HtrA2 peptidase (Caldicellulosiruptor acetigenus), 409 residues
Amino acid sequence: MTDKFDFETPNYQPSYSPINFEIPKTIRKKKSAKEYIVAGLIGGLIGALLISIFFMAYFGVNFNNFKNDINSTLNSFNLNNSTTTEPITKTVVLNSGDSSFVTDVAQKVGPAIVGIKNKGTAYNWWTDEEQEITMGEGSGVIISKDGYVVTNNHVVSGAKSVTVILSGKKEVPATIVGTDALSDIALLKIDPKYVKAVAPLGDSSKVKVGEFVVAIGNPLGQEFAGTVTFGVVSAVNRKLDMGNGIQIPLIQTDAAINPGNSGGALVNSSGEVIGINTAKISQTGVEGMGFAIPINYVKPIINDLMKYKKVLRPTIGISVMEYYDRSGNVMGMYISRVYPGTGAAKAGLKEGDIILQIDGKKVTTFSDIQSILSNHKIGDVITIRVLRDGQTKDFKVTLGTPIDTTTND
């Protein structure tokens, strides 16, 4: 019968069905002649063994060798197969090559990682004149023999001048070729004669979660230049708002990234740059959450900066402002102007239309539009749903090149 439990009664006593236990009397059985013979033999062997041990100890025989012989004899009779009390352990030998690539990566890519100094001016009240000061420091990556260096836009933002510190500590002047705040990428150039190493660019589309990576940069400035940290890819396509309305698909890593690492390289085990280190989550209780801009995202930006000194992003060809309903909620984006000759004008969009959706995604801010367009290129066709005269209507718009919005048409 099952015990009855009463969790509210402190002096709980389980109830049972009464069972009477009876201990049976011992029944003795007479031994056979065969059993007596076996017992006698075993006793004789044990007696002979004890006598042998006595004589060996008396005459100085090596007991250890004898013990080994005895153990060997016992094993041959399978008399030592009882369960052992010693723990069974398995030694796992790690492949020494698992992380040995870090040394090779450091030697291969390290010389192509440089320091970046953002310099400005400040008024010196003592001398009554402007003097040059260092406003910030970061890292950069030499990507070509021509002297092009890629870094973060926030590293050089607001700079009056920029210098590059090579791996040999030599500081050389650099020019800012172009910057792009939306992607946080900037392109610099130094004299090619200073280029001693170039970092090869990889393919970030092949990056997998869990693979080993190395971050190289200058955390906290030149005092810790060329610092190498090791970790894994924690995640890919992390969409984080960089503070400009654009959500860049970032690579997340637990390789240590600190202030000053910005603009440095995230490198795979083949020694290829797969990302440009850009940010980390810095708050109490959070560790090992750094982020890099995928190199495949960076490449077209670099190409545009080289060719046009700016990034040619696709445009719709309109000016917009937020449109509110009677309750004060944003309904969509009001088109205040349609520029002639653009995709919007050719598609039939008009001033006064209210954009509700783009490619099926709700639009209530300019940042929403920017975020959607960041996933497209010039020549792509998008679907824009607008509210016109109380009715919704869809338009197919071909994205074009940036336009000069200052012209009076």
Observations:
- The chain is about 20% helix and 35% strand.
- Residues 211-308 form a domain with the Thrombin, subunit H fold (CATH 2.40.10.10).
